[in-house]
Design a protein that fits this description.
With 390 residues, this protein is of the alpha/beta class. The protein contains 8 helices and 15 strands.
């Protein structure tokens, strides 16, 4: 990407969710009216001094340092040619998965999970840009594989946090009454209510808290990240961020949301595993913000700490949110997984995977120059050795 183009991207990426910058570009929702009541927030163990906090403090480079890096630009951050999207329609999902669990990657961190005869939509983002501005900010590399009109009937939407590349106002409003339930971290319900979602359709949970929907349970898990959608940071960390474990009688999956590395992965695996699949972010990392995006190598270490599950990467291949080559996350992931002996499946946008019958990895992305872990290491701060479950 040319430097001039990257500078324009900077203006649209000032603190955008998923990038390394810690500002937002306009809050479209309000967190002042909480579904579970303000008391649920202020009594949360994660709420301190008027905001949510991480288990481990996060290191943040100065805004000027990050802006300088963005202005210098980077190469190969967006694809040159169209990506091989697998277009889907509702009828593709008419028959249940043969193994009882099917996961469809719809790009970035948007997933359709079919488990125990239910359908769960995770972090639905359909907008062209992960930005509050339609004309500026990170633009999709590819079209959504499944239109909102063709989305099959779903039972619930799960949200990990309120950044623009995970919480899409246009998608929420387009879905309307088709979503019976939104299951979200503490405080995120304020955005949803502002956008017209009825309070009785919103379930908010703190870390380690569970909500049950029939035979399925949804447990919010700790993550190391941040939140906020406001230009002036007025709502910085006013809503919680989390991962999620979705568990049924026969299957269970772990979704990381956005997170840096932290020592609790082993505890998550011990308390809530074993997992059939681990859906973990791998992109948007940089040494300037080492604690809010885990990166490929640490993602594999986190998967080893979790103890089980086919690794399916998310949070890559859809938006330009950092300075690495767009294929670098998956290239480094495959190298780390091969060395660690961790099973991986890499779906193309729109592809469905049944973890019990994983396909062989097919390199559907083009060869692009990228930096190895030795050339561009990423190590999160403040870590003790990660404990694996017994």
């Amino acid at each position: 990407m040319k430097r001039k183009t990257k500078l324009a991207a900077v203006l649209g990426l000032v603190g955008l969710a998923g990038s390394g910058l810690a500002l937002g570009l306009g809050a479209e929702g309000s967190t002042s009216d909480q579904a579970q009541g303000q008391g649920a927030i202020t009594t949360s163990p994660q709420w301190r001094d008027g905001k949510f906090v991480n288990e481990r403090p996060v290191i943040e480079s100065s805004f000027l340092e990050m802006l300088f890096k963005w202005m210098r630009g980077a190469e190969n951050t967006v694809p040159r040619d169209p990506l091989p999207v697998m277009d889907r329609v509702a009828s593709d999902f008419a028959l249940p998965p043969q193994t009882g669990l099917r996961i469809t990657w719809l790009g970035h961190s948007t997933l359709l999970v079919e488990m125990e005869n239910r359908r769960i939509l995770v972090d639905p983002v359909w907008s062209t840009r992960a930005s509050p501005l339609r004309w500026m900010g990170p633009k999709r590399f590819h079209r959504p594989p499944l239109s909102l009109a063709d989305l099959p009937e779903i039972d619930a939407v799960v949200i990990s946090h309120d950044h623009y590349d995970h919480l899409d106002q246009e998608a929420v409003q387009a879905l309307g009454d088709r979503v019976p339930l939104y299951i979200v971290p503490l405080g995120v319900g304020g955005h949803l209510r502002t956008w017209g979602v009825a309070p009785q359709r919103i379930i908010e949970r703190d870390w380690w808290e569970t909500f049950s929907l029939g035979d399925l349970s949804f447990t919010a898990t700790p993550a190391r990240h941040f939140s906020g959608r406001s230009l002036i940071m007025a709502d910085r960390d006013k809503t919680l961020w989390s991962g999620w474990v979705i568990a049924g009688p026969k299957h269970r999956i772990y979704y990381s949301g956005d997170t840096g590395m932290f020592p609790t992965f082993g505890e998550i695996g011990k308390r809530l595993g074993p997992f059939d699949a681990v859906l973990m972010e791998i992109g948007a990392y940089n040494a300037l913000w080492p604690d809010v995006h885990i990166g490929p190598e640490q993602a594999i270490e986190a998967r080893r700490a979790l103890g089980s599950g086919l690794f399916i990467p998310v949070h890559w291949g859809t938006f330009d949110l950092a300075l690495h080559a767009w294929t670098e996350p998956v290239e480094r992931l495959l190298a780390a997984a091969d060395q660690a002996g961790v099973p991986v499946a890499v779906p193309r946008p729109g592809e469905s995977i049944e973890p019990a019958q994983p396909p062989a990895v097919t390199r559907w992305w083009p060869p692009v120059p990228w930096q190895t872990a030795d050339q561009a290491p990423l190590i999160s701060s403040g870590l003790n050795p990660v404990t694996r479950p017994n």
